[in-house]
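**Fold tokens**
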Amino acid sequence: MPNILQDEKELIEKKDEDIIELWKKRFKEAENFRRPIDERNLRMYKLYRAYRDWNSNYAYNTNLMPPIGYEVIETVKPRLSSAKINTRILPTKKEDIESPSLQKWDNLIHYYLDIMDFSNKKVEWIDAQLKYGNGVSQFTWDSTKQAPDMTVCDNWLTYIDPQAEPRLKGARWIIKRSWKEKEIIQKEEKEREDPLYDEVKVMKLENESVQDDPRRNRRELAGKKMSQINDAMDRDNSSETESAMAEHAEYKSVEIWECYDFIKQEIVTVANKQEVIRQDENDYKGMNKDRNPGNTFVDLPNIILPWEYYAIPLLEPVETTIYEIADSRNQAMDNIVLNLDPITKIRKGKGYKESDFKKGPGAMWFIERADDIITERPTDIGNSWIEKDEILRREIQTSLAMSEYTQGMPQSSQEPMGKVELLLMQTNIRFSTLVRQMENSFQEMINILVEMSQEFLSEEKAFRIVGEDFEFEQFTEADKQVYIDARVDIIPKKEKSPAEEANDAMELYRMFVLEDPPTSEDPQELFRWQTKKAELQKMILEKMGYEEYEDLLVLEPKKPMIEQPMEPEQPMEQPPQPIPEPVEMIPEEGGQMTDMNIPQQLQTIPEKEPILPPEQGLVPESSVGQEPSPGLLKRLMNKLR
């Protein structure tokens, strides 16, 4: 009876062998194709780190490298990173134009960017774009967080299909290479709800020596950086490389290839080039259909070459110019050293020893004849190297459209405005190309996030709205049914000269202070106007470079005292008085009416409304607020009659 299990095992092993051979072939193909690209990337990294390999053909000893590469990269990177990103969510169907779900989609995308730490990872992405020509980021879905995740790929460990076109269009496959200890792999598998790898095959793995890590040369620069100026003539690069490889060989780990096949739409993981520990269907096969089906890698190129995936790094066009500046400076340094410490010729056979000619301040040499010692100094090159340095720097600025104002180094405050504006205009025009590249890549990223949400997001999700107010919003299945598309606009920070910034501040002062005075004498309105005036005065002083005089020249407005309005006294409620009965007035002797039975209402006279004018003398000032006298009431009654 045939052993069915044995036959099935052999079939699986044969299948695994075929898979491993396929990916070995693809890996070798990509490695050979990008070998010159790796060499170029290493040169660009050395320029950025201001490192110069020792050249044995160089005539003298100085081996310095000016930090021009670092200066260029760290000037452009912050400008691109600080650009404002506007995301517009557009419906794909006419009936969804007024849908409230559009705002929910917009809030959800901003929430994703927040939890992905996009503001910081964006800087890494742009850094790779500028240094090496291409920055590649991978976007995956984290089922635990119910949100996407972002990884900026290492250019040295990402192997792209050689047939790929710009922006990874037409890429058939991509390989991500990494190293990880077996113990860490097993620990991560235990923590996952759904393990990725075959547990039995993982158990067979062994940590092996790492000898062909392509990052080795890049990492060695950290130790070589300062050694380039110490004992340069005695350096032996071959011995250093061998010792470095020996150190790396002591490090043991499992080599992992994460292989993404966009033809078969599957993901394969090969460990140590001999075990297939994962073979699954590509979960993202429904993503990016219009651009790169199933591919959630997004490329951010610098200067695109038609029909080529690998773009031009920012420093490559000026690489030779930077080395020319370095040569010029090293030659000048050697010339200075040889003039300070010249060649000395000593007549042979006169019995002189080297110790007889000590060098230093106040040194004394005892010689028999003046011509026993001859000192030879080279021709002093003077300041010609400085002029050459300036010419070459201008060549770099012209090639990269980076004026001294863009780099924050204006030559003089007296520069003509026309020249400054022209330099900045050239810079902004050239940078607009990089901005357009970023817009295309970020737009592809946003659309991938939208497609992931439609595919993997649960029926209902509560998420925090990013902003000043702390509130949550509910995203439901109904919102997912509104299909959308995204557009991204990037607004770079406009570069201005100090004179332009000062003029803008003066214009604001004219508009909001001189032409908008207070319209009344209201203390609150006057205080607001004085506050605007003081703040704009501070801005003008800052733009003109006189902020140290702020305390002397700017008067802070004083907030007016707010008088609390007096609450009117509420009159005490009097109980309703009964209407008095008519009383017969009994005349006194002599025809006068008696006041014994005068109604009570007539015995109290209001203070503020006297019945008679004060000048008639009926109500003296001393009697205000007092009970009226009987004689006064008699006279009032007579007047009433």
Remarks:
- Confidence is low (pLDDT under 50) at residues 412-424, 590-628.
- The longest strand covers residues 252-261.
- The two ends are 144 Å apart (CA to CA).
